[in-house]
Design brief:
With 45 residues, the chain is an all-alpha fold. The protein is built from 2 helices and no strands.
């Protein structure tokens, strides 16, 4: 499983369980997750 696939699966699971808003912390290691969050449906950053 690629990093992108893992991130998408994780975000889909969060939405499935009712998560609607997320808070992110600044940091270069978060970049792939932040990029996916900004384009995701169902999650407010």
């Amino acid at each position: 499983m690629t990093q992108a696939q893992l991130i998408q699966q994780t975000l889909s699971t969060l939405v499935h369980f009712g998560v609607r808003e997320v808070c992110i912390a600044a940091g270069a290691r978060n970049a792939p997750l932040v990029a996916a969050l900004l384009t995701s449906n169902g999650l407010k950053v």
